[in-house]
Write a structure and sequence with these properties.
The protein is α+β, with helices and mostly antiparallel strands and about 150 residues long. Helix content is about 35%, strand content about 25%. The radius of gyration is 15 Å and the shape is globular.
């Protein structure tokens, strides 16, 4: 199988991004996805990488370069990561992580961070990240504002 990893190209990719985002557990309308992309695309530190196979986007990762008080230098935070259910277990996710690692190294960044929900259905994702050398290191909190 041939997989091409490349940056998201707006119109042709958003249809597939919409379907994949629902698989990730965040259903939205195509209009919501379009609006989100418009905001994300305005941030020069944000990038969406996609994996294309047979003219379809079968996986994507939204990544952002960030900086912290914890250490000198920056890091990449993976904000979204999903592989189409039909392609899981075929090395697609590993290839996408490898591309993100390459991007981080090119930018002289110190690490890659990813958050994953603490729900039972996310356990396979946790095992995937562990298999690629990621360590669980914190618990996240969030608060929605009215």
């Amino acid at each position: 199988m041939t997989f091409i990893i490349r940056p998201l190209q707006l119109e042709q990719d958003l249809r597939d991004i919409h379907l994949l985002t629902a698989q990730l557990g965040y259903p939205a309308t195509p209009e919501n996805i379009q609006q989100r992309w418009q905001k994300l695309h305005q941030n020069p530190h944000y990038q969406t990488l996609v994996v294309e196979h047979d003219n379809r986007v079968i996986a994507y990762a939204g990544v952002i370069e960030e900086y912290t008080w914890e250490f000198d230098g920056g890091y990449i935070r993976i904000q979204a990561f999903v592989v189409d259910q039909a392609y899981r277990g075929q090395g697609v996710g590993k290839r996408l992580i490898t591309a993100i690692e390459k991007l981080a190294k090119e930018r002289n960044l110190k690490l890659i961070q990813v958050n994953s929900g603490n729900r039972e259905e996310r356990l396979p994702a946790h095992a995937f990240y562990n298999s690629l050398g990621f360590d669980a290191y914190s618990i996240g909190f969030r608060k929605y504002l009215d």
